[in-house]
Amino acid sequence: AMPEPTLLLSEAMSLCAGEVNGVLKIIVTRGTGERGYAPPAQAVTTRVLSLSSAVIFPAEYYRDGVSVRVCDTRLADNPTLAGIKHLNRLEQVLARAEWQDKGESMQAVEGLMLDNNNNVIEGIMSNLFCVQEDGSGPVLKTPLLTHCGVKGIIRENIINVAEAAGISVQETTLELADVYRSQELFLCNTLMGIWPVRQLEEQHFAVGPMTRQLSQALESLHD
């Protein structure tokens, strides 16, 4: 069973005592057992809490946007695990290694990952949002994560903030061609907040008004 939330909160507050800025990571496993894959009959969860220094990203990432590439590594289809942040990140490690130390002229800081059906799912370390016109106004779209991908906390926050502001939001299937037709793109996660995308492969995008609006709303939410 999962540990009591009050226990995790107490341990987190103790670890963070005296710290103003930092990154708290909480890992919960099912605990130890015998050899093999079968869980023990009476599993006792293991909790690992770690605190590291705050991550400071370059200001131009937020002001001007970032460059993004499309990864060759594909995400496996597994509806049972879709949405959760589990500890098997081998696909992400392989994807990030595709351009590590290769000196690519585009200098991508993030990569988009697709599934085996050519659907765009997410970034290596982030969730993706697209702003598209549908004839009646701008629509905020994000990939549907029913077969793979991580439903990040900030992704959920952005959906809630956008809907509260009266913005139409769709969780939908997106192929690369759909993404390229967008007027605005941005990436998000808990540590970086929102990064506008200024370039995806060879195509350039403007840092648009909805991206700015949601960035400001997210900052206000977390102040």
- The CATH topology of the largest domain is D-amino Acid Aminotransferase, Chain A, domain 2
Report the order of strands and helices. HEEHEHEEEEHEHEEEH
Q: What is the arithmetic mean of pLDDT? A: 93
Sheet/helix structural class: alpha/beta
Please provide the count of β strands: 11
What is the highest CATH level, the class of the largest domain? Alpha Beta
- Count of DSSP-assigned helices: 6
Q: Radius of gyration from the CA trace?
A: 19 Å
CATH architecture of the largest domain: Alpha-Beta Barrel
Taken from the alpha-carbon principal axes, the silhouette is: globular
Largest sheet: 9 strands, mixed
Query: What proportion of the residues form beta strands (DSSP E)?
Result: 25-35%
Number of domains: 2
- Low confidence ranges: none
Find the CATH superfamily of the largest domain.
D-amino Acid Aminotransferase, subunit A, domain 2
Helix content: 25-40%
How far the N terminus sits from the C terminus, by CA atoms, comes to 33 Å
Question: How would you sum up this structure, described in words?
Answer:
- This protein is of the alpha/beta class.
- The protein has helices spanning 5-16, 59-63, 90-97, 153-164, 176-180, 209-222; strands spanning 23-29, 46-52, 66-75, 110-115, 120-123, 127-133, 138-143, 168-172, 184-189, 193-200, 203-204.
- Strands 3, 4, 5, 6, 7, 8, 9, 10 and 11 form a nine-stranded mixed β-sheet that branches. A two-stranded antiparallel sheet has the order 1-2.
- The protein is globular and about 55 Å long.
- One of its GO terms (biological process) is 4-aminobenzoate biosynthetic process.
